[in-house]
Amino acid sequence: MIEPLVRVTGLSKSFGALQALRAVSIAVRPGRVTALVGPNSAGKTTLIKSLLGLTRPDAGRIAIRGTDIDGDQQYRSRIGYMPQIARYPENLTASELICMLKDLRGPGAPLDLELVDAFALDTVLDQPLRLLSGGTRQKVNAVMAFLFSPELLVLDEPTAGLDPVSSGVLKDKILAERGGGRTFLLSSHIMNELEELADDVALLLEGRIVFGGTLDELKRITNQGTLERAIATMMRRGLLPVAA
Amino acid sequence: MREAHRVARVVAGVMVALVVATMPAAATIPRVPAGRAPMVVEVSPDGPVRSIREALASVARGGTIVVHAGTYRDTTIVVAFPVTIAGAGDAILDGEGKRQIMTVTSDSVTVRGLHFENVGVAFTEDLAAIKVVRASFCTIRDNRIDNAFFGIYLQEASECVLEHNELRATRTRDATSGNGIHLWHSREITIVGNRVSGHRDGIYFEFTREAHVRDNVSTDNLRYGLHFMYSDSCDYQRNTFRHNGAGVAVMYSKHVQMTDNRFEGNRGSSAYGLLLKEIADSHLQRNVFSNNTTGLVADGATRLLADHNQFVNNGWALKLQASTEDALFTGNDFAGNTFDVATNSRSNTSTFAGNYWSAYDGYDLDHDGTGDVPHRPVRLASIVVAQNEPALILLRSNFLLLLDAAERVIPALTPETLADSTPAMRWVQ
Amino acid sequence: MNTILKVLKYQAKDALRSRWLIAYALFFMLITDGLLRFSGDPMKAQLSLVSVVLFLVPLVSIVFGTVYLYNAREFIELLLAQPVNRRQMYGGLYLGLTLPLALAFTVGLGLPFVLRGADATFSGSLGALLLAGVALTCVFTAIASLIAVRCEDRLRGLGAAIGVWMLLTVVYDGVVLFILAVFSNRPLEHATLGLMMANPIDIARIALLLRFDGAAMMGYTGAVFLRFFGNAQGVIVSAIALVLWVYAPVALGMRAFLRKDF
Lengths: 244, 429, 262
Known about the structure:
Largest sheet of chain B: 25 strands, parallel
Structural class of chain A: alpha/beta
Helix content of chain B: 10-25%
Distance between the termini of chain B: 85 Å
Oligomer: heterotrimer
Mean pLDDT of chain B: 89
């Protein structure tokens, strides 16, 4: 068995009375796309934010390549993050934003600007972000995630707000990068999209992992042909914990 | 002829006897035959005449004693006949902290260019560097007086001139400090271009009439730069009074003229530029009051005319007590003061017209240079502070500004009649 | 350190282009120029500006600061997902907010004086005025940052910001005056000075009083006040108190920021 890139063990987090995560354990295997699925407020975003250090878990551990992420921010240089909402300082331009990330990360490998061409963004890079449409901002967002060719890409609802063409561009990019050995953790509501991209699936329900394994495995144990139906079946079965 | 000779000899003998009888001191003073006394006697530490006292014994009446550089220590020098005593070089008369240095009891004495120092301090007697007693037509000029108890002291003197003297003392306590220039029961004294510092009062008059005080600089004195009482018909021009403990106090006098003086930097809880107390029918013109805790205190300054003065950067520019009746303030500039006018009463008999107030927030729609709405210079904050001193610390706070604005709309505590109905829009001066 | 400067650089770039910030600078420019023009007396203009600065700088700093940080929420999240240290990040955010505000204020107030060639005698008090305004900016953006970090709800946060401003700018001094009036027969020198040092607007105001109303301040009979106003002691104590007023909210905000879940 290959050592997972990310191993989450017994992660719990509550916000006041709300238990967002209850002893969640998952493994994200390298060179694969792991889909994080579940209904709204199942804890997907909390899990992602915990991984990025934005949220402090109450209990549990997160390790990247066997090393706990506690206390050191350097591990984040291996991660590219594409958040769900893209509202940035309205008076900066996209290229300034990119420069800023570059400054923060320091010198490294050459920047991956492939998506700039693919999205045909070069004309808008120097406009203030407030003048850009939501879709365009989401594209800028995607560019920033891939920019530093990170080992792990965390994409939160990446195609939300993108037109079908751009959505296709982004999916192609994901598949190409996975082929190059990168690892993805992505959350989405769009099951068809995940079906196209995902190798592994982690299903979250009310803060618990109810399934963690390969897409094929999920289909097999649910006896369903598509991810959408397989998930639906799992959700109907309720909150039966399944070992990852 | 023989008879005649004999008579003459007798007469001469009688005269000599008379002279001897009327000059008891002659026994100790070397006798100089009359008519042959020298007009000029030189005094120097290593010359034939080594003290002013010796020189006084030999010099002719109306003659001159020239004192050369050196330090002279002697008992108090009494000048009892008209003579000029002049320093040549740094001639230091040292009182060794024990005594008065010179007493002038004759008219028409001139003392100039000497350097007096270390006058004695006494609690029963006003020891001075130079004391003039019951004399007229004396001139005291260009002297330097260091570390004196009293500096130049005129007692029942008249028609004297004190000019360009420099008096410096360094005492720190009122009780061991005397006044720089002190006049008592004197009249028609001209005091010009002197500089006084470090004394109790720089210039002090009591019961003095018709003194003319011009171009003097009185600074850093412990109490007052200028202090006078019961001294009518005096005038003060172009003097500067700066950093004195309490400022300048003018009390119980009439017909005082004060023109072109500067009152500066007198700071402290009871310090002011100028205090006018029980001063009637006086005229204050073109004076500058700046950086004083209080610029002018008018306490019983009845029928005072104050025009074309500048009140700049004072804590309180003018404290107008209710005891002042019928004063007129016109053409003055009030700028940058914390409070322009403070008063202890809601009634007011004084008139303000045509002054410039930097705190004025009215307008001049017809552009005639006069504001269209009256200015009421007494602020509520000054009344709050008068009743509760620590409230001063809330000055310029939004809360006090709010109260002030309310008071302006409905005056409840400030005197309504104290207003300048023709405020100037620009500095008058 | 590096992160502070980098965050500061881009955030300041953004804030400096903000329409609100430009409006703020223009407002000060207009009001200063107007006062200089119509009063024809730089001294009078400066005294009026004392009130404007004490009133407006805290208000704008705390309201603009709070709103700006709420709007930057997602941006902060993006930054935190980078390999940056939260402590330095907070420093960068605070400075990136404070410096542009302070700059806008300084330019807005100072430029008209420079352009009108106000003579050197006024440069000292102009300097005091600018310094007081910058200090108040630093204090109130620190409070704004603390509020924005501690309070998730924007409306409540904005309410808290305006409440703090109201309290410190008007209510507090009213209470102090009330206390002084009630206990007027007791020695309250130390207590009064202490109360003043506990309010940053009062500290700035007193620093300006030392400059503009020094003569009146020397009118106190109390020895404590005289010592405070008569020499450097007052300036030093005020400066220390102001620094504490920046340090405390920044430290508290930093603590909350380090533990905050985004």
